[in-house]
Specification:
Elements lengths: L6 H22 L4 H18 L7 H16 L9 H4 L4 H8 L12 E6 L4 E8 L4 E8 L33 H17 L31 E3 L10 H11 L23 H9 L1 H13 L1 H7 L1 H5 L7 H14 L23 H21 L1
Parallel strand pairs: 1-4
Antiparallel strand pairs: 1-2, 2-3
């Protein structure tokens, strides 16, 4: 009895196998050219040997294989978008923030990167290279302790004080101070601190840093919010306002600051100033102290421990802004001294290990003789 095989079934099975392998290669973006060529030629050789009902010339097979190779090699030039699956990068925005002007001779495009963690605010001046992003300068909210800010290191002017009970927008203070610290630090590093002082005492008005008639132009950086929500009054715009008042040229408008009226298209400068200096926090402290003293002591325990009352909040941030302008340079980290909890043991030499073995043997024989 002769075994008969349906050639049509084999052809369909081989088509599925070849398509599957090519799909795997595309998905993993293999970058070895020899692997591309050898794999695809091998698959097409299998296909040509099984598909006897549809013979093709060697020239046709070669051209088809080379076409697949060229398509796969094209994947090497494409960006491997890994972070969208993790939700860490907005590539639509990053592409426009990173691309450089072709007529400025490799002049980098700087970004004002603002990120928030549970306990800190990170502000950085970043520029992109082929190898990756490089940080020119950085400032953190936890550094504000050195400038007199006693607590609330993640709000608009500098914790979350439960202001939503009074229908306030998101807190605004320390983000402003962190942006101000970054601006003064990067300008000091570049030697532009004296030429661009920015807004020394902010009154809440929207002002952009203008170029001096004589001297270098202002340092320009574009706001990079990442994947944060850019709602009206968001803390990220507090950091931007601080950097702008610190002397950086950050192109922006005031339609996302607290107090912006969407109907009249005007900003409430007084409300914005209150957010910068923490006046709204002081008002809430007074309100909470009268309404619920127990919650007041729990909510503002850090301020009360440091002796900060409602009438001292504005002065605290004013003095912090002055201290930042006097000395924005980051203090070098102090090396920790003391005994380590788990000191690393030195590896014994060969002679020391042999002596330890002899000592154990001698002690064992001595104990054995005594017994």
């Amino acid at each position: 009895m002769d075994l008969q095989i349906d050639s049509g079934w084999i052809d369909g099975w081989m088509d599925t196998l070849i398509d599957g392998w090519i799909r795997v290669i595309k998905n993993y973006q293999v970058t070895k050219k020899n692997y591309y060529i050898s794999t695809i030629h091998y698959l097409y050789s299998l296909s040509s040997s099984s598909k006897r009902t549809r013979p093709t010339s060697s020239a046709t097979r070669s051209s088809t294989a080379e076409e697949e190779v060229s398509n796969l090699l094209l994947l090497q030039t494409l960006t491997c978008y890994e972070f969208p699956n993790q939700g860490k990068t907005d590539y639509y925005a990053r592409k426009r923030l990173v691309v450089q002007a072709k007529n400025k001779y490799n002049s980098p495009k700087y970004r004002l990167v603002v990120r928030f963690t549970n306990k800190d605010i990170v502000c950085q001046i970043v520029y992109a290279k082929i190898q990756g992003d490089y940080v020119l300068a950085a400032a953190y909210a936890h550094e504000l302790k050195d400038y007199g800010v006693k607590g609330g290191l993640t709000n608009w002017s500098a914790g979350k004080f439960g202001l939503k009970d009074l229908k306030f927008d998101e807190e605004y203070m320390c983000s402003y101070a962190t942006g101000l610290l970054l601006a003064r630090r990067v300008l000091t590093k570049l030697g532009l601190a004296d030429k661009y002082e920015g807004v020394v005492e902010s009154d809440g008005t929207v002002q952009l840093t203008e170029a001096n008639e004589e001297g270098p132009r202002p340092f320009k950086a574009f706001l990079d919010v990442g994947t944060a929500r850019t709602s009206t009054g968001a803390r990220v715009f507090g950091a931007m306002k601080g950097a702008s008042d610190g002397g950086l040229f950050v192109p922006h408008s005031g339609n996302r600051f607290p107090g912006f009226d969407i109907e009249t298209k005007e900003n409430d400068d007084e409300l914005l100033r209150n957010y910068i200096y923490g006046v709204h926090v002081a008002e809430y402290m007074e309100y909470l102290e009268e309404e619920d003293e127990e919650r007041f002591k729990k909510q503002f325990a850090t301020f009360l421990k440091a002796g900060i009352t409602s009438d001292k909040v504005e002065d605290m941030y004013t003095e912090a802004h002055e201290a930042i302008r006097e000395n924005p340079i980051k203090k070098p980290a102090q090396k920790k001294t003391g005994v380590k909890a788990y000191p690393q043991k030195r590896r014994l030499t060969k002679r020391e290990r042999d002596n330890a073995v002899r000592a154990k043997k001698a002690a064992f024989h001595k104990e054995l003789a005594e017994n």
